[in-house]
Write a structure and sequence with these properties.
mainly beta, four-stranded antiparallel beta sheet, 3 helices, 10 strands, globular
């Protein structure tokens, strides 16, 4: 269970969202604290072994009539072809951080673009590997033709495809695409530009 209201349990007043700490579901039951009664927040559910997931919007009033039921559905699947600046396929690229799940909308984390930084807050986002080591432990690697697959994507969640290897530097990642996936859907993201690929990284 993943949500921006599920925070690291450090002592003191300071709290922040991190993918390293996730909510627990025991025997199909869960409890979620800290919800505003009038504001819904997305909560993401993932069963990595069976590749099932769901996204639901919950507020403090959601369970006013009793426990709610969250029905998991088959996760989605995304495929793409990685290409360099000349359109040549990028083979052997281990893309552990190619996509991120966006838990809170905002500009891409570490972006240096002034307009984005001044107008919006940074997103809460993490790679699938941070929340799903079962399916992403070593990160997918592109094949000889540049093709790459991203399995077990949570239905209803927003994902971004990010190139962290651009000429602007590693701390100015470029969002190449943003998408939301439906239950059991396979999305073809087409060609994804990897400006300065470092193979095996």
């Amino acid at each position: 269970m993943i949500s921006r209201v599920i925070l690291d349990p450090y002592p003191g007043a300071y709290r922040f969202w991190s993918a390293s700490y996730q909510g627990a579901v025991h025997d199909g039951r869960f409890v979620l604290h800290g919800l505003d009664p009038d504001t819904e927040v997305p909560v993401f559910f993932l069963e990595p072994n069976e590749k099932l997931g769901a996204t639901v919007n919950l507020s403090g009033k959601s369970a006013a009539g009793g426990p709610i039921t969250v029905t998991l559905a088959p996760c989605g699947f995304a495929k793409a072809r990685l290409v360099g600046t000349g359109g040549k396929p990028v083979a052997g690229y281990r893309a552990a951080s190619l996509i991120v799940i966006v838990v809170t909308p905002g500009y891409a984390t570490f972006s240096r673009r002034k307009m984005e930084i001044e107008s919006r807050l940074a997103a809460h986002q993490r790679t699938p590997a941070a929340i799903d080591p079962t399916n992403y432990r070593n990160g997918p690697t592109s094949k000889a033709d540049g093709r790459i697959a991203q399995p077990a994507l949570i239905p209803g969640a927003t994902y971004r495809v990010i190139d962290r290897t651009t000429s602007r530097g590693a701390l100015d990642p470029q969002v190449r695409k943003e998408f939301t996936i439906k239950p059991g859907e396979t999305v073809d993201l087409g060609d994804i530009l990897i400006e300065k690929p470092q193979l095996g990284q």
